[in-house]
Amino acid sequence: MKFVSFHLMPYRQLDLEAARQHRSTWVVLPNSFYDPVKGAEEYAAYIDFLVDCERLGFDCISVNEHHQNAYGLMPAPNLIASALIQRTKTIKIAVLGRALPLVSNPVTIAEEFAMLDNLSRGRLVCGFVRGIGAEYHSTGVNPYFSHERFHEAHDLIIKAWTQPGPFAFEGRHFNLRYVNLWPRPYQQPHPPVWIPSQGSTETVVWASHPDRKYPFMVTFSAGDVVARNLNAYRDEARKYGYEPEDGQFGWACPVYVAETDERAREEAGAAVESLFNDFLRMPMEMLIPPGYTSQKSMQNFFKGRSVIGAPTRITADFLIESQTALIGSPQTVRDKIEAMRDKTGLGILLPMFQFGILSDELARRSIEMFAAEVMPHLQTAAAKEMA
Fold first, then answer.
1. pLDDT score recorded for residue 310
2. Distances (CA, A) of 342 to 229, 249, 251, 338
3. 334-341: long-range pairs with CB below 8 Å, 24+
4. CA gap 232, 20 in Å, rounded
5. Strand pairing report for 167-170 and 175-179
6. What pLDDT is attached to residue 293?
7. 0.85 cut: is pTM over it?
8. Are 126 and 157 in contact (CB under 8 A)?
9. What angle (nearest 5°) sits at the alpha carbon of residue 141, between those of residues 135 and 143?
10. How many angstroms separate the CA atoms of 116 and 186, rounded?
11. What are the residues facing 301 on neighbouring strands?
12. Torsions phi, psi of 326, nearest 5?
């Protein structure tokens, strides 16, 4: 099993009580809530945290892209990735992911990723997403064309990475007379591509196609939903005529480890509640704007008891019991990860150790214990199975 330390970089200094007077912490929350001095301190602490993951033995560190919100301070994750590249030596760096439909020219993403791949000498992992519905409010892009723009942008980027230029690209949304990538990617034919998702039916079918076989990461979902979506990917792969590898199945979730289940719940409870009740708070029309997703995927979203955009406050007990968050002793967390691996063939875990208002001290204590008492056990078990 591979371990990817995933970070959102939230603005922990947010006045939560005052922010609740606004419809959401996304799009409409006045930026007067942001203090640049405190924000700069947060960036420094978060980058230090991720850099230290190399010492702790993680396979990869990961950042992502969001816009105009207090939940994630990375509107340009390539900049954070560049800083991480300069301060690490061997660990892989994943940008999970760039929101392809939001850009006016996808070649800029192809160029940025190619630069990062060169700067890191082949340590880059690329994540492609459509971006959640709120991003379309932030950028003014029509959500009705989200799927079309995503697929067209993806095809253009892969072609730019792999086909000698210059060449012309003519699509419905993107038209370029000259595509001629300088620099080309360091990894050939191109860096690995991963697909984070909350289980869109179309995404499962598309990512598992034999032309792609992209690793599929289920995010912020209850354990039964994670299992259902990962197994749906396996079913689609079998329909295509192949058996997927464990490395095609990923799970991203908040993780907190302490000496006992009770202590873990006490130390992380308020923080995980702030993540889902405050930092992810948004009305449904902002989360899923008209045209953003198909009727079938929307039905699956509501059937999956999504904790994002929930109409009532969510408790830490519910998040723990539903395995939306893995919070407990090393043994408890190991058991839950192993159970998911047994159900799905899970091969990539993306634990998020800092979430909501969780302090640096607690996040560091948790990740140290995870690296010492959870990760080696799972790595050893996987190695024995492969022997």
1. 67
2. 14, 12, 13, 6
3. 334/373, 334/374, 334/377, 334/378, 336/223, 337/1, 337/374, 337/378, 338/378, 338/381, 340/223, 340/226, 340/227, 340/251, 341/1, 341/246, 341/378
4. 37
5. antiparallel
6. 79
7. yes
8. no
9. 75
10. 9
11. none
12. -100, 100
Q: Which two tokens stand for residue 287?
A: 């989360």
Main-chain phi, psi angles of 24, to 5 degrees = -160, 160
Residues 6+ apart with CB under 8 A from 125: 60, 62, 92, 93, 94, 95, 96, 191, 192, 194
Helix (H) or strand (E) run with residue 165 in it: none
Helix residue spans in 255-329 (DSSP H): 261-274, 284-287, 295-303, 316-321
Count the neighbouring beta carbons within 10 Å of the beta carbon of residue 126. 25
**Residue 80, amino acid:** I
Tokens of 343: 């159900």
Distance of alpha carbon 124 from alpha carbon 256, whole angstroms: 27
Going by the DSSP 8-state scheme, the letter that residue 195 receives in this structure is: E
In sequence order, what are the beta bridge partners of 92? 60
Terminus-to-terminus CA distance in the chain, angstroms? Answer: 14
Structure tokens at 31: 């930026």
301-354 per-position pLDDT tens digit: 666 555 676 667 899 999 999 999 999 999 999 999 999 999 999 999 999 999
Dihedral pair phi/psi, residue 125, rounded to 5°:
-120, 130
